C-alpha cells in the first residue's frame, strides 16, 4: 500500500520548525525524508521508518523495529500518532542531521561521444565490409 499524500503533508506540518531543512522526495509510491540533504528516514505505508543509528535509539528509548519494505533492513518505526510530539520529532531530525554522514558527491556526467556516421558506414560508425 502506497503512502497517502495527506500523510506526507501531515509529516511536513509536524516537522515545521524542526530547526533543520526537511524535504520529502517521492519514490516508487513512498517517500524519502531528507534532513539537511541527508537521508534520515523513509515514509512507507503511512509510517515513518527512521535510520537505525545508535544515537537515534538512545534518543527514542524503546523503539519498534520493522523493515520499511520487503527485503530491507529493519528501521525504527514511528506511527503517525507519535508525530504530534513535535519537539521530540524535531529533535530526532536535528540529531539525525548531525550524526548521519554527508552524502557522497556525485560524479559529473560526461557526454558520450559517438562515432560519426556516414553513408558508407555501418552500425556503430564502423566501415561496411565490401562484398
Q: Layout of SSEs?
A:
Blueprint: H1 5-14, E1 22-27, E2 30-35, E3 38-44, E4 47-50, H2 54-60, E5 64-66, E6 75-78, H3 86-99
Antiparallel strand pairs: 1-2, 2-3, 3-4, 4-6, 5-6
Protein name: Transcriptional regulator of competence genes, TfoX/Sxy family
Region (Disordered): 98-131
Organism: Phaeovulum vinaykumarii
Explain this structure:
The chain has a 6-stranded antiparallel β-sheet with strand order 1-2-3-4-6-5. It is built from 3 helices and 6 strands; from the N terminus they run αββββαββα. The N and C termini lie far apart (60 Å). 24% of the residues lie in helices and 23% in strands. It has helices spanning 5-14, 54-60, 86-99; strands spanning 22-27, 30-35, 38-44, 47-50, 64-66, 75-78. It has a single domain (5-99), classed as Yope Regulator, Chain: A (2-Layer Sandwich), CATH 3.30.1460. By secondary structure, it is of the alpha+beta class. It is elongated and about 80 Å long. Residues 98-131 are annotated as: Disordered. This is Transcriptional regulator of competence genes, TfoX/Sxy family. It comes from Phaeovulum vinaykumarii. Residues 21-93 form the TfoX N-terminal domain. InterPro entries: TfoX_N (IPR007076).
Quick summary:
Residues 98-131 are annotated as: Disordered. This protein has helices spanning 5-14, 54-60, 86-99, and strands at residues 22-27, 30-35, 38-44, 47-50, 64-66, 75-78.
Oligomer: single chain
Q: Whole-Å distance between the termini?
A: 60 Å
Low-confidence stretches: none
Q: Helices and strands, in N-to-C order?
A: HEEEEHEEH
Q: Describe the largest sheet.
A: 6 strands, antiparallel
CATH T-level fold name: Yope Regulator, Chain: A
CATH architecture: 2-Layer Sandwich
Mean pLDDT: 87
Task: Using the CA coordinates, give the radius of gyration.
Answer: 23 Å
Which structural category fits the helices and strands?
Answer: alpha+beta
Strand order of the largest sheet: 1-2-3-4-6-5
Number of separate structural domains: 1
